[in-house]
């Protein structure tokens, strides 16, 4: 089974969006370079960021998100983002009316079942869990192997927290990756068991 990684871009003070669910400048680093990150050409990063992010994106088989992210993105129009094979959506609601049942999206009622489904779908590939409330729940359940953050030099002051509403301490190892890109600091931590 592949590893489970919690991931997102984040402000220096630990937010993945502002109070209005807007990312503000958190994704500016994804369009501020000259190296295309994907085939669309819309995402361009520094060579340093490309060398770190592209191999990681190539590892991902499944992304786990909450219904809120799914709704904010309009379900990526039924196409998983960044070449990912499947998206598992943690929700207590059914798929939206008119949703294509052939789209590689799976709607699951709780984080444990979502992660089990994601790991089965991913096989040996990485399961990525979006940071925020769902990511915090998966961390609290002891199911995250690694935390990856793209720290952007901005302070929001309030908003949607990277770890959601985690209410207990969780120890991480010292960062084993610290890479400075253009307007971003890439960090990777293993979760201490």
From TrEMBL:
SUPFAM superfamilies xrefs: Dihydrofolate reductase-like
Segments forming domain Bacterial bifunctional deaminase-reductase C-terminal: 87-169
Alphabetical list of Pfam families matching this protein: RibD_C
Superkingdom classification of source: Bacteria
GO annotation, biological process: riboflavin biosynthetic process
GO MF term list: 5-amino-6-(5-phosphoribosylamino)uracil reductase activity
Name the record gives this protein: Putative riboflavin biosynthesis protein
Organism: Nakamurella multipartita (strain ATCC 700099 / DSM 44233 / CIP 104796 / JCM 9543 / NBRC 105858 / Y-104) (Microsphaera multipartita)
């Amino acid at each position: 089974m592949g590893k489970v990684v919690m991931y997102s871009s984040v402000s220096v003070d630990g937010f993945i969006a502002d109070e209005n669910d807007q990312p503000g400048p958190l994704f500016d680093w994804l369009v501020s370079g000259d190296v295309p990150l994907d085939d669309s050409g819309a995402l361009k990063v520094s060579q340093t960021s490309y060398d770190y992010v592209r191999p990681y994106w190539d590892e991902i088989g499944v992304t786990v998100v909450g219904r809120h992210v799914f709704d904010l993105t309009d379900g990526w129009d039924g196409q998983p983002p960044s070449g990912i094979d499947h998206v598992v959506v943690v929700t207590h609601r059914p798929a939206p009316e008119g949703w294509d049942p052939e789209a590689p999206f799976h709607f699951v009622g709780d984080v444990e079942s979502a992660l089990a489904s994601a790991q089965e779908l991913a096989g040996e590939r990485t399961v990525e869990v979006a940071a925020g409330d769902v990511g915090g729940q998966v961390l609290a359940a002891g199911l995250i192997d690694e935390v990856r953050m793209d720290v952007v030099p901005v302070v929001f002051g309030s908003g949607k927290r990277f770890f959601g509403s985690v209410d207990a301490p969780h120890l991480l190892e010292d960062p084993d990756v610290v890479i400075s890109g253009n307007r971003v600091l890439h960090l990777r931590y293993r979760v201490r068991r």
